[in-house]
Design brief:
Chain B: Ferredoxins are iron-sulfur proteins that transfer electrons in a wide variety of metabolic reactions. Chain B: Its cofactor is [3Fe-4S] cluster. Chain B: Keywords: 3Fe-4S, Electron transport, Iron, Iron-sulfur, Metal-binding, Transport. The complex is a heterodimer. Chain A has 15 helices and 10 strands. By secondary structure, chain A is of the alpha+beta class. Chain A has a single domain, classed as Cytochrome p450 (Orthogonal Bundle), CATH 1.10.630. In chain A, strands 1-2-8-5-3 form a 5-stranded mixed sheet, sandwiched between helices. Chain A has a 3-stranded antiparallel sheet with strand order 4-10-9. In chain A, a hairpin with a 5-residue loop joins strand 1 and strand 2. In chain A, helix 13 packs across helix 15. The longest helix of chain A has 32 residues. The model of chain A has no long low-confidence stretch (mean pLDDT 93). Chain B is α+β, with helices and mostly antiparallel strands. Chain B has one domain: Alpha-Beta Plaits (2-Layer Sandwich). In chain B, the strands form 2 sheets. A two-stranded antiparallel ribbon of chain B has the order 1-4. In chain B, strand 2 and strand 3 form a beta hairpin. The model of chain B has no long low-confidence stretch (mean pLDDT 95). The chains are: A alpha+beta, B alpha+beta. At the A-B interface, helix 3 of A face helix 1 and helix 2 of B.
Chain lengths: 401, 62
Amino acid sequence: MSEFEAPVPLPTARKAGCPFDPPEELARLRGERPISPMAYPDGHVGWLVTSHALVRAVLADPRFSHRADLTHAPIGGTRVGPARPAPPGIFTSMDPPEHTRYRHLLTGQFTVRRMRRLTGRIQEITAEHLDAMERQGPTADLMEAFALPIPGLVICELLGVPTTERARFQSDMSKLMSLEVSTEEKIAAFGALQAFMLDLVLAKRAEPTDDLLGGLATAADLTDEELANIGGVLMGAGFETTANMLALGAYALMSHPGQLAALRADADLADQAVEELLRYLSVIPGTVRAALEDVELGGRIVKAGQSVTVSIPAANHDPEHFADPGTLDLHRPTAGHVAFGHGIHQCLGQQLARVEMRVALPALFDRFPALRLAVPPEEVPLRTDMMIYGVHRLPVTWDKE
Amino acid sequence: MRIDVDRGRCCGAGMCALTAPEVFDQSEDDGLVVVLDAAPAPEHEAAVRRAATLCPSGAITL
């Protein structure tokens, strides 16, 4: 290993014509040096980790902190202002014991069993959107007609956010998640979201409702600010992630007709298909930790204070863990994929995301068996400018019966 | 095989209940791990090992 290796920025460029493949540079780095010096947009020199084994090791190690005031942002344009401790309630950017306190207030609401109980309601919401698509078709933007509203309405109902506010919330949220929106616009969008959530919390304090936020407002010992911020975190996490998996997942299935046929022929394959799509598409580019002390990792020394970015697509396409990782294979073993992360911050809403995908994707292709792109593939606008990968729009068409 | 779980470490992600539902569950109150069968039958051992490996917070020891 050379001592003169130049730090590289987090690779984000994807090969033209390969919308589902991770940035090519990641595979080269993983093969040559799975822990590499990384140049952060703010000038910090830290590390980038690209092998499955090391990604899991970092995420499971309490010597690596997720505190917002210690980590450097791996992608430019994602952080507004200087690094600060996370505001009360933003538990995703905290370490134990603060993180544990908040997380344990919420874990009972997102269990496997509780999320599966939502299956019937998610089927209804999905059917309503497929009906609307069918009425307005035979073309649609699948993002607008299907992928965004379904998880958006589900999270609104679960939390107790008026569903009439979904579109407004979605617009503010996508400004925050964009890498190209100005800082001023982001601050304005963030302020609007905060004000909205705070008003909602105050309303629920005054008149408790039978939903997640209503329950927390009466049962848990949380300040208004904590509760509003928790609501914001859960709404944000519930919106963009699943929406992008649904749209990109549908696009991937349309592009792999053999795999789609296998899924359509065997309803029992749905769970497995969801896991493989999560692995194969890996829409979250990565997450970042900061070393609390010097840590030896993969033969290198990460100095206290240095940031370590773990690449989710690189780990999920590591041939040491997944044979022939670049192939979408709904029958393959997927155990150990890190699409939801690993360690104590592993996605709280993952069981909800699983149920949403398992319901919505098969229902889409049951309704429109001949669903296909309405434009040439090169005209599908890819979210290379966003923190979560996917498509901005997915124009589709089908045969009218 | 004997299963030990540390509810203090558990982060309630549900990987164990998803992977080995005959042996692990989540509490209705707090979503944390509940062991249904601390000495599982041999046919469940492979799933239990997988659940322990997949547990994100290292809360399951065998």
